[in-house]
Amino acid sequence: MGRKIVSGLLVSLDGVVDAPERWRFPYGDEETGAAPGLVDGEAEAVLPGRVTYEAFDAVWPYPNGLSGYVRRRFQRRPPTVAGASDTLGQAVRSGAAVVDGDVAAALRALKRGPGRNIDLSGSVTLTRSLLEAGLVDELRLLVHPIVVGSGQRLFPDGTGRVPLRLTRSATLSTGVVDLTYAC
Which spans are transmembrane here (predicted)? Predict the structure, then answer.
């Protein structure tokens, strides 16, 4: 069957995935940071989109820049940045590589190759495009008990039908709900 692409996102109760650094911290503790919904512990490759990579890249080398789990991911697994070749050029930090050209075709080939899962975390635009292309195998959501009111949503108005099957759920002590869906 090959590798799976597993997308993990932080989501508000009203579906906002935009700028979680502005609303998630009342719920951000070690339990939430270690939740399976946020990161695929079995993943071998890390796949951020350009915007997510640039945000992580700006702070990851600094002691207080990124939380421990994100820092460990970047140190253990240099990322492959998708959809960035025209604006990012060569990713220089953390040994990152850039996917050029047809991102969907490149990721189809990567999925067929040997190895463990591919972790796609925090990249909303990339997650949407890979869902449309049928390339996301699991969608892991940490739904936070807060209504943000406005912002980018994972599934904006006009999104076509996206059939999902719940495969795991857990409620964390902060009230965050950890959900895993098969796509």
Answer: none
Q: How far apart are CA 65 and CA 97, in angstroms?
A: 21
Task: Give me the domain span that covers residue 99.
Answer: 5-182
Query: DSSP labels for 98-148?
Result: EE-S-HHHHHHHHHHSSSS-EEEES-HHHHHHHHHTT---EEEEEEES---
Closest among 18, 14, 42 to 122, alpha carbons compared: 18
CATH number at residue 24: 3.40.430.10
Q: What is the pTM of this model?
A: 0.77
Strands 165-171 and 177-182: what pairing?
antiparallel
Let me know: does 179 contact 140? Beta carbons within 8 Å.
Answer: yes
pLDDT value, residue 130: 87
Q: Which of 154, 172, 169, 137 is nearest to 34 (CA)?
A: 172
Kindly give the parts of the chain with pLDDT less than 70: 1, 29-98, 100
Between CA 142 and CA 149 the distance in angstroms is 17
- Is residue 113 packed enough to be buried (19+ CB in 10 Å), middle (13-18) or exposed (0-12)? exposed
Q: What is the C-alpha radius of gyration for the chain, rounded to an integer number of angstroms?
A: 16
Distance CA 118, CA 45 (A): 5
Question: Which position has the token pair 């409620």?
Answer: 171
Q: In the chain, how long is the greatest CA-to-CA distance?
A: 43
